[in-house]
Design brief:
The structure holds two protein chains of two kinds. Chain A is an alpha/beta fold. Chain A is 31% helix and 22% strand. In chain A, the strands form five sheets. In chain A, strands 16, 17, 18, 19, 20, 21, 22 and 23 form an eight-stranded mixed sheet that branches. In chain A, strands 7-8-9-10-11-12-13 form a seven-stranded mixed sheet. A four-stranded antiparallel sheet of chain A has the order 2-3-1-6, with helices on one face. In chain A, helix 8 packs across helix 10 (225-238) and helix 12 packs across helix 13. The N and C termini of chain A lie far apart (111 Å). The model of chain A is unreliable at 8-92, 338-345 and 529-555 (pLDDT under 50). By secondary structure, chain B is α+β, with helices and mostly antiparallel strands. Chain B contains seven helices and six strands; from the N terminus they run ααααααββαββββ. In chain B, strands 2-1-6-5-4-3 form a six-stranded mixed sheet. In chain B, helix 3 crosses helix 5 (73-106). Classes of the chains: A alpha/beta, B alpha+beta. At the A-B interface, strand 15, strand 16, strand 17, helix 16 and strand 20 of A face helix 1, helix 4, helix 5, strand 1 and strand 2 of B.
C-alpha cells in the first residue's frame, strides 16, 4: 500500500508532475509537432523513464502505462476512479479537443478485415474504425463518435474462430502522431494516387483521416502539420497543375504547409477549404502566390463571422489575398483587374491585344479593317471613296516620338497635312484643317506615301456599339513604300463606322494619328509576313458600299 | 497671331485667283464677301465664334466646289454653322485635355467625376463598362506624368447617345509611370457635351509600344 501511495502521489498532477509538463502541449492537435518534433519519438523518453520506474510494480501497470503513452490515452482501467477523468479525474483537457473512443477487443484471433467488417455490419450507428492495431492479445481501434462507441460496446457478436467478441470501451484523447516511415509514405502515395482524378485534374483530400485504405492502419489527420507537410511534399513532387484541390472536412486550423505548393510553383486553380476550422484569413498569407480562381470557404468560423458583416466585406477581404479570384463560395465575383506585369517596378494590368465591348462584332470588325487596309496598301486609294460617307470628317495628326525615344525618320510629309490643336497654345499658329467630304479625304490619302501595314501589330478597341454606329480604335505599325524593311511608322486610327442600307459599312468620322515607330515596335514588326499583301480584286467581297442621302436623315 | 492668319488666308486664296478674276474681276472680292457674310452671321446669331479655330480655307474651298457664281449666303451659313460646331468642339477639347491630364497626374478623384455612369474604358485592351470598373482601373494605374504632344477634336456626325451632341478627341503624347521612362501613348475619347462641358463616354488608352 505504501508503495502504491508513492506512485499515486507521483501520478497526481502537480507543479512537478509529468502531467503538468505536458499540459497544453500534449493534447493540442497542432502542438503535437511543436512539442514532440516528429511525434511519438521524444515522448518515448518519458515513456522509458516511467516504465523503467514502474517495472518494479508488476505487469499490470507497465502494460497500461505503455498503452497510455503510446496511444496518448487515459488509462483504460475503469476500476480506478482517481484516474478516470470521466469522473473528474486529473487529466487536463483543453478546450476544442474532441475526445475519441477507444474500443478494446480481448483475445483477437481473426483477421482485421473480418473483425472490423462484422462490427460495422452489426452496429446500428455508422462509424469509421481508425488505427486498428494489436497489442499482445488485445485489439484496439478508435472511433470518433461516442454514440457509435457505446453502441459497439453493447453489441453481441459471435464469430467463427473467435467466439463471442468481448468489447471494452473508453474515452480517450485523440490519437497521437505516428512517425512517418517509408511504409507509411508509400501508403500515402497510394492514397493520393487513388484520390487524384487525372481527367478533372483534381485532388480530393476531404476527410483524409477517414480514407478507407488509410484509416484502418493509420490515423493521419491533415490538421496535424506533420501529416499535412508530408502530403504536400508528395503532391509538389508529383503534380504540377491542379485544377481543384479539395481540403474540406479536415478540421484544418491553418494552411501553413500549403506553402510548399507555392514554393514548388504548383498551379492550383481552385481550392476548397470548406467545413474546416479556419479562424482568420491570415492563413492565406503564405498562399498569396497561388493563382487561385475559385475558393470555397464556407462553414468556417471566419466565413461565418465575415458574412455577418456584409457579403461585400467578405469578398473584399478574401480578394485582398487573391486578387484574381473569380468564384468565392459558388458566387461569381465581378472580373477583377489582374496585376501581373511589372512596369518600372509597379504592377500594371497586362496589355490585351483586343477589347470589344460586345464580342459579336468581331467578324464585322476584322472584315472591314482587313478590306480597308488591303486596298489602302495595294492602291489606288481612290477605291476607298466608297468606304467613306459623303460628308465624312477626316483629320490627320502627326507628332514625333518623345525625345527619349529618338526619331530616326522625318515626319515632314505628314506634319505638313497634320492638324494639331496644341499648336495654338504652343506657337499660336493655325492648327491645320479638317477634311470634309469624300473627295478631300481621298485627295489627302492619295497624297500620303505608299504603305504596307503589319496586320499582326493591329490592336483593336471597340468601346461603343449601337444600332447606328460602331466606334473603333485601331493601333498598329506600317512601313512606308512597298518594301517592308523601309521606314516604319506607328499609327492610331480612331473612327466611327455606320451600317449602310445596302448591307456594308462606311466611315463617318475618321481620325488618323501618325508617328514614328518606336524601337520596340520596329523589332517585332513584320515577323510573319515576307511579301506585302497582294490580293486580286476579284476576291473582294462586297463590304464597302456607298452611302446615300438616307444617311443624313438618320442623323 | 493676326498677321500669320492673314498670310495663310492669302496663301490659300492664291490658287483661286484666276477663277475669281475670271468671274469677279478682282482678287479680294471673295475674301470680302466671306468676311461680310461672316460678320452678318455673327450679328444675326449673336455668337462669338473664336476666329482661331475657323477654317476659312475650308469655307472657301467648298464654295469653290459648289458655286462659281458668287457666294451663296445660305450655303455659307450652313458652312459657318458647321464650322461653329467644329470650333466649339475644339474649345471644349482644349479645356478638357488640360483638365483631364492635370487630374490624372495630380488628383485622380476629380477624374472619376468626369466619366458618365455608363462610360466604357479600355486601358491597353483591359476594357469594361460602368463607373465601378472605371474607378477600379483608374486607381490601379501607378502615378503618372503626362505630356501632351498633340490633340485633335471633331464633332461626331452621328451621336452615340441620341440627342446629345458628342465630340471625338485623339490625344498623343508621352507618359511616365511612377517617374520611370517616358513612353509614347495615344488616347482617344468620346465626350458628350452637357452645359458647355464634356463628360467622357468612351476612353481608350494605348501605349504605343505594346
Amino acid at each position: 500500500m505504501g508503495r502504491h501511495d508513492k506512485l499515486r502521489e507521483q501520478r497526481r498532477p502537480g507543479p512537478s508532475g509529468f502531467y503538468e509538463e505536458n499540459r497544453g502541449f500534449f493534447y493540442s492537435e497542432e502542438c503535437y509537432d511543436q512539442r514532440m518534433g516528429h511525434g511519438g519519438e521524444d515522448f518515448s523518453r518519458f515513456q522509458d523513464r516511467r516504465i523503467g520506474h514502474q517495472r518494479k510494480n508488476g505487469q499490470k501497470y507497465h502494460f497500461d502505462r505503455q498503452l497510455q503513452e503510446n496511444l496518448g490515452c487515459a488509462r483504460g482501467d475503469r476500476q480506478d476512479p482517481k484516474f478516470d477523468y470521466r469522473k473528474g479525474g486529473p487529466r487536463y483537457i483543453p478546450n476544442g479537443v474532441e475526445l475519441w473512443n477507444r474500443i478494446t477487443i480481448k483475445n483477437v484471433k481473426v483477421t482485421r478485415g473480418e473483425l472490423l467488417k462484422s462490427i460495422i455490419e452489426a452496429c446500428p450507428e455508422p462509424f469509421v474504425p481508425v488505427y486498428y492495431h494489436l497489442r499482445g492479445e488485445f485489439g484496439f481501434f478508435f472511433v470518433e463518435s461516442s454514440r457509435a462507441a457505446s453502441a459497439i460496446q453493447r453489441l453481441h457478436i459471435t464469430l467463427p474462430v473467435q467466439g463471442k467478441v468481448e468489447f471494452g470501451e473508453t474515452r480517450c484523447m485523440p490519437i497521437q502522431n505516428l512517425p512517418i516511415d517509408e511504409r507509411m509514405q508509400i501508403k500515402l502515395k497510394h492514397v493520393l494516387e487513388r484520390r487524384y482524378d487525372p481527367l478533372a485534374q483534381s485532388l480530393d483530400l476531404s476527410n483524409f483521416h477517414y480514407d478507407e485504405s488509410l484509416c484502418h492502419e493509420y490515423y493521419v489527420p491533415l490538421s496535424r502539420p506533420m501529416n499535412m507537410k508530408e502530403v504536400m511534399r508528395i503532391i509538389a513532387g508529383n503534380i504540377k497543375y491542379l485544377k481543384n484541390l479539395d481540403l474540406s472536412n479536415n478540421k484544418l486550423r491553418n494552411l501553413d504547409n500549403l506553402e510548399i505548393l507555392v514554393d514548388k510553383s504548383v498551379e492550383v486553380k481552385a481550392l476548397n477549404v470548406s467545413n474546416n476550422d479556419i479562424q482568420s484569413l491570415n492563413v492565406f498569407e503564405k498562399l498569396k502566390g497561388l493563382p487561385l480562381e475559385s475558393l470555397m470557404l464556407a462553414d468556417n468560423p471566419i466565413a461565418k463571422r465575415l458574412k455577418e458583416k456584409t457579403n461585400d466585406t467578405y469578398r473584399r477581404e478574401v480578394r485582398r489575398f487573391f486578387p484574381k479570384l473569380v468564384i468565392l463560395d459558388s458566387d461569381v465575383l465581378p472580373v477583377p483587374v489582374t496585376f501581373d506585369v511589372k512596369l518600372d517596378g509597379y504592377e500594371m494590368p497586362v496589355t490585351q491585344p483586343k477589347f470589344l465591348v460586345n464580342e459579336g462584332v468581331n467578324a464585322v470588325l476584322h472584315t472591314f479593317v482587313n478590306q480597308y487596309y488591303r486596298i489602302y496598301d495595294r492602291g489606288p486609294r481612290s477605291e476607298l471613296s466608297e468606304a467613306y460617307y459623303e460628308d465624312v470628317l477626316f483629320s490627320l495628326t502627326a507628332a514625333p516620338l518623345p525625345k527619349s525615344e529618338g526619331n530616326r525618320f522625318n515626319l515632314g510629309t505628314y506634319l505638313k497635312e497634320s492638324r494639331n490643336l496644341m499648336k495654338i497654345k504652343q506657337s499660336s499658329v493655325l492648327p491645320g484643317r479638317v477634311r470634309r467630304g469624300r473627295s478631300e479625304t481621298i485627295k489627302l490619302l492619295e497624297a500620303l506615301p505608299k504603305s504596307v501595314h503589319d496586320p499582326d501589330s493591329f490592336r483593336y478597341d471597340v468601346t461603343i456599339i449601337t444600332d447606328t454606329l460602331m466606334l473603333i480604335n485601331l493601333k498598329g505599325v506600317f512601313a512606308e513604300g512597298t518594301d517592308p524593311k523601309g521606314v516604319f511608322r506607328s499609327f492610331t486610327r480612331f473612327f466611327v463606322i455606320c451600317p449602310t442600307p445596302r448591307g456594308g459599312y462606311c466611315i463617318i468620322n475618321d481620325f488618323l494619328f501618325i508617328s514614328n515607330a518606336s524601337q520596340a515596335q520596329e523589332k517585332v514588326a513584320f515577323k510573319r509576313v515576307e511579301t506585302p499583301l497582294k490580293i486580286e480584286p476579284s476576291t473582294y467581297p462586297l463590304g464597302l458600299v456607298s452611302v446615300q442621302r438616307e444617311m443624313m436623315e438618320m442623323s | 497671331m493676326q498677321l500669320t492668319y492673314k498670310k495663310q488666308l492669302i496663301k490659300t486664296l492664291e490658287p483661286l485667283k484666276p477663277a475669281i478674276n475670271a468671274v469677279h474681276g478682282t482678287d479680294f472680292k471673295i475674301k470680302d464677301a466671306v468676311k461680310e457674310s461672316f460678320s452678318k452671321f455673327k450679328e444675326e446669331h449673336k455668337t462669338d465664334i473664336d476666329v482661331k479655330f475657323m477654317d476659312i480655307e475650308t469655307c472657301v474651298s467648298r464654295l469653290e466646289q459648289t458655286s462659281s457664281a458668287g457666294v451663296d449666303p445660305a450655303l455659307l451659313q450652313k458652312l459657318i454653322e458647321s464650322q461653329d460646331r467644329l470650333s466649339q468642339s475644339a474649345e471644349i477639347a482644349e479645356k478638357f485635355v488640360e483638365l483631364y491630364y492635370d487630374s490624372m497626374d495630380k488628383a485622380r478623384q476629380k477624374l472619376l467625376m468626369m466619366y458618365l455612369d455608363d462610360a466604357t474604358l479600355s486601358w491597353n485592351g483591359n476594357g469594361g463598362k460602368g463607373k465601378a470598373y472605371v474607378m477600379n482601373l483608374i486607381l490601379a494605374i501607378p502615378p503618372t506624368q503626362h505630356e501632351v504632344a498633340s490633340f485633335d477634336a471633331v464633332p461626331m456626325i452621328v451621336d452615340p447617345l441620341p440627342g446629345r451632341p458628342s465630340i471625338m478627341i485623339l490625344v498623343a503624347g508621352s507618359v511616365r509611370f511612377d517617374k520611370g521612362k517616358e513612353k509614347a501613348f495615344q488616347q482617344s475619347f468620346v465626350l458628350v457635351i452637357e452645359e458647355g462641358k464634356g463628360r467622357i463616354y468612351s476612353d481608350v488608352f494605348r501605349l504605343q509600344d505594346e
